[in-house]
Amino acid sequence: MYTKLLYDYLVDCECCKYCVLRYLKPRYEELLCVEKAFEKRKLGHEKLKINDLNEKKQKLNPCVICFGLFENIDSIILKVKEDERLNNYEIDKFLSGFSLPVLLELTQLQMWLALIEKFPEHISKENTPDVPIKDAIKYIINDRLEKELKKEFDVEGILIGINFSIENEHEALSKLDEVAPELMNERNKQKKRFRTEVISRNYFCKHFTPTSIDITKFQKLIPIPPKVPTAPIKFDEIAITGPTIFLAGRYNKYSRDLSQTPWFVGGKKLSDLSVEEIIVSSILPHFKVSESSVTFMSSGREDVDVRCLGKGRPFVLEIMNTTKTILDKTLANEMEAKVCQSGVVSIRDVQLVKRDDLHAIKSGEQDKKKYYRALCTLRDNDIINEEMLVKLEINESFDIQQWTPLRVLHRRTLMKRTRTVHSVKAHAVKGNYALNNFKICHFEHVLCL
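and the corresponding structure tokens:
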């Protein structure tokens, strides 16, 4: 009996069939076939009435709650399907995002308060009585897009952003200043963060509920239930963005005149190339993105005049808005070969990794012990002797107080920092030269005087 009364009341308020069903607490899959959902609830004999009502409203005024959002699903799907930008992406997955007007949250609150007044024994003041508009539209459109685009819904797919607006929304929401001045005053203190909106969706949903507002005061200023709007919701634009991927590998640097990243001091670039630029220029053409879409990360860094040998230093490229999400072994080898052609940098083990794997890069930077080798010379042409080599063989860790290196003084405070050297071993080379091996902690700068 209650279901039928609720159904009739929502129809009389001029809700569309989707919004009527939302208040009947359907399973999400029932939103895909509204008529069957009504028949299941023995409301099938009213189907014609709802269809006639929808046709009439499409000609006159839209739904009182969703402003005609659900009635325009077909046109939304068609616009997405015909968007030529999707052809730029060789990706068989998609993710959707919706920007809906906050005014829809207000109309849902208006109907919630109306239902509390109409059916006080059935409608709670604590729990919303409907399937939220945003959840419902996402479920319906995602199902349709999977079929129309022949792509799987996945968080790592192309992001299809669909944006809507409602005429005079600002004016309607401004009434909240009178409904709950204490809440809006708190909100207005954050104007610097929210300059373009009266109120955010999250703030509204958190603070404007039947238990937190003066319902009598609300009803004097805002109609309960909501009135039929004079203009429907407006479809603004579709934003297409490729997913973000992470390409990892290891690099070796063979030049003593090459910075890891572009090196600027006082706005002037001090070197023509860097490790980052050589790697990025060889890899980006495959993913068809601009350099501004790429962020270079590595497990630590070496000085300009220090080579990086051995297995190489781990690095990651964060590539945003990529057109591809697959990297086969053959192509990875081609990328490695192209970087190697530079003669000063090589890369290996190139592969795509997950975002969760990035912690290994940063933890390596913090925890890894590193080996450095430096060629040192004695003053006054002294000759290396056995006594010196014995003194330079240190197997126990010790701390040193190191001043900020001159190379980074333009961006770091001049001060002493405690550094740990884990071991030292020296070998005589020729004349007054000694080859010193250091095992040191992270962030260490090797200074040989």
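(Above: one complete record from the training split.) The chain has 16 helices and 14 strands.
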